Amino acid sequence: MRLILLFLLPIIGLTKVESKTNPPNVIIIFADDLGYGDLKCFGGAKGYQTPSLDKMAAEGMKFTDFSVSNPICTPSRAALLTGRYPHRWGYKGGVFFPRDTKGMPQSEETIAEMLKAKGYKTAAVGKWHLGHKPEFLPTSQGFDEYFGIPYSNDMWHDGDAPIHKDAKILEGYTIEDYKSYTKDQMTKENIKKYRDKVPLVEGEQVIEWPVDQTQLTKRYTDRAISFIQKNKKKPFFLYMAHTMPHTPLFASEQFKGKTERGLYGDVVEEIDWSVGQVLQAIKKAGIEKNTLVVFTSDNGPWLVKKQNGGSAGDLRGGKMTTFEGGVRVPCIAQWKGMIPEGKVCKQHIASMDLLPTIATLAGVSLPNDRAIDGIDVSHILKGNFNQDTGREFYLIAFNNRDMSIRVGDWKYRKGTPTNIPNKKLDLEIQLFNLKDDPNERNNLADQYPNKVKEMAALLDEKFAEIKQ
Questions:
Q1: Which tens digit of pLDDT belongs to each residue from 232-274?
Q2: pLDDT given at position 1
Q3: Domain 23-381 belongs to what topology?
Q4: In 3-state terms, what secondary structure has residue 294?
Q5: Cis peptide before 199 (omega within 30 of 0)
Q6: Which residues of the chain form CATH 3.30.1120.10?
Q7: DSSP code per residue over 379-406
Q8: Residue 136 and residue 103 in contact, taking contact as beta carbons nearer than 8 Å
Q9: Pairing of the two strands 61-63 and 331-334
Q10: Where do the CATH 3.40.720.10 domains begin and end in the chain?
Q11: Any idea which residues carry the catalytic annotation?
Q12: Total-model pTM
């Protein structure tokens, strides 16, 4: 027996060394405008099914108090990829449009750049929305590959953006149509001409315009699976950001007209199918036990779109508000053998926590020349809910008419009382206890004036601290 043990010790030691040099693959799947009440496993999905995501939740971990940093696209995506409040790099509000010449600065360090230092292969597939000029695209932010649309699918194109010599020009348009539509023509009246006619980019060049949006989800899925297969023997990071269910809605023939919910249900079922395909690809590649997959959304549902918009469930508000319906989104994480199956995390976790958490799991050091606002919650992923996350506060600044700050279960909000901020309405001071009132129905501001004063001062202090 002693001889056997002596023989095994070097092998055991070697296994430990190998595990340290074998960091996990990471896949983040980011939906667009998918609400808290849009998945069956979160108590929603009326009139359609989400079997792949329901299975992912049953075999992984579901987060019921997961926040994004902002209730609109650009700042939410920036925070997820950098682990920082976007105001730290000068974000001033709104989203980037095709007429904009700016984007998230190259000086920001993304998850992709952080993991490349560890030898990861990196790819971004889908919607970007952090600047469409070449110096702001994913290939300038740490991604080896990029395939997708550079901003929201209800926008248009920039005729000055580089286009491949063999690009496909569809719908009867010509290359002259593309190149003639430059910034000086993007007036409110003229934008209607090319509204919803967005380009498909590979690397830094447009390869198709206008892209056939009915095929986007399938093409993203094919590209993601190809990347997984190509890199299954080396560590990789895949950021897969779906274009939808942001409007306008498009589904392929396989899914169009299949649900009782209409086109919105069709679109979500196709995204659910896509998630299932990616998870199957991981399993087929034999890397399930070394791959972390996180599914979430950039913000809550676009309620003004009514039938073509999603649901926040019982939560108040939606996209473009700092009510919980605008910033609390569904989140599911799966990592076979690491994340315990069927667990539900009720602790407050945020999208910008992903960067420091992934850094810990991959054995990568965080940048030491800047503030990182996310916190490491790797212990949560392993099922340790007893340890406090250590979050001191959580700030959401949509604009100067809708801001909120959260400390523990207390949430202070300064904004208009409606779902959509209205410049004609007076601002209302609101105080909620999210543990007792997650739906934000009971304003406690009058009952706790000292708490209001304390949190209002903290909001002003912290926003001034992060704002460039």
A1: 999 999 999 999 999 999 999 999 999 999 999 999 999 999 9
A2: 41
A3: Alkaline Phosphatase, subunit A (3.40.720)
A4: strand
A5: no
A6: 394-466
A7: HHHTT--SS------EEEEEETTEEEEE
A8: yes
A9: antiparallel
A10: 23-381
A11: 73, 129
A12: 0.94
